[in-house]
Amino acid sequence: MSAERERKESSTQSPGYGQAAGKVILIGEHAVVHGVPALVAGLNRGARARATLNEQDQVFAGDDELALDHELYQGLKRLRELLDMPQTRLELQLEIPSGSGLGASAALGVAAARALVELRENVYGFETSEQQLCTAIDAWENVFHGNASGVDAAAARLGGVLEFTRGAATTPVSSTRVLNLAIAIAGPPAPTKMMVAGVARYKERNPQQFAETLAAFHSLTSNAVACLRAGDHEGLGKLFDLAQILLAGWMVSTSEIENACRIAREAGALGAKLTGSGGGGCVVAVCASPESTKQVLLSWQNAGLQAFSSEVQASLPTTK
Ligand code: MEV
To answer: Does 191 lie in the same domain as 279?
Structure first.
């Protein structure tokens, strides 16, 4: 058997698999693009991918083969170029709503990159460094995002609760108390690229105000990290409400988002805000207990909103 044929056969027998978490930004979306730390939590659902070598690039979302002009093909091409891989069949499964602020594109990117890395190892025996993996993921993200801070990709790759600063080390945040979150899709999503560009325009027109809000976000994130570490979810809820006011000032909230936040607070949530890039998409509420989360979900569902809960367990503090 020729080496080429042997390689092809072994590749079909040894697909690469990858998976990644969705994310919810607790504090600091948009501000993080401009260098301020954000607090982000990985969700326990996200995306899965399977990759095999193929005669041509093929991308499937669930059972559907995507048309060749779908932008996921550009993401795949960027990944392949960076990992020096030939044409690939990529099968993707998404477990979270797409385009709603829960990091679907980054979760798909991380899952796909991991699948390609595993395939590369199976077929060629090449090891891939974490740095190469991160570079490939950033390239994928920039196809969809434009000026991505990298926060979504970090959460998708690492999971848990993280303090993330663009271009700096990412720090896991530990806590002994489980964080009860309720998440609703408040309205139709808006493209992240467009929302990030809108905030950049606001910054250009109002540099002084923008700098002041950015400083306020910086202290909200520091306080949120302290609240989480101390298990003070009541305090965290208040910070959610303040963050929502600041985000509305940057014109990324909508009447649907404000309405979903109000419903959550009236149902007993400790605080509520948009999560992700806004303009539509998801709202996240922090709740005191699983029972309180149920109340919030019920109120959203009664108002016709799709909603679900997520229990976030930060890593436990290490004892010295
Ligand atoms: C999107 O989930 C979060 C934004 O801050 C954009 C980014 O950080 O890349 C709006």
So the answer is: yes
Residue 313 confidence class, pLDDT cut points 50, 70, 90: confident
Rounded CA separation 120/132 (Å):
13
Of residues 46, 270, 26, the one with CA closest to residue 163? 26
Residue nearest to atom 1 of ligand 1 (CA): 276
Q: What mean pLDDT is predicted for residues 216-225?
A: 98
Predicted local confidence at residue 99, as pLDDT:
85
Ligand 1 neighbours (beta carbon < 6 A): 25, 29-30, 32-33, 101, 103, 145, 148-149, 151-152, 192, 196, 276-277
Report residue 216 as tokens.
Answer: 């306020």
CATH number, domain at 197? 3.30.70.890
Domain that holds residue 132: 3-164
Ligand 1: which of 110, 166, 192 to mutate, judged by most atoms within 8 Å of the beta carbon? 192
* Residue having the nearest C-alpha atom to atom 8 of ligand 1: 149
Backbone dihedral angles phi then psi of residue 115, each to the nearest 5 degrees: -65, -40
Task: Decide which of 130, 164, 198 is a domain's last residue.
Answer: 164
Task: Tell which atom from ligand 1 comes closest to the C-alpha of 141.
Answer: 9
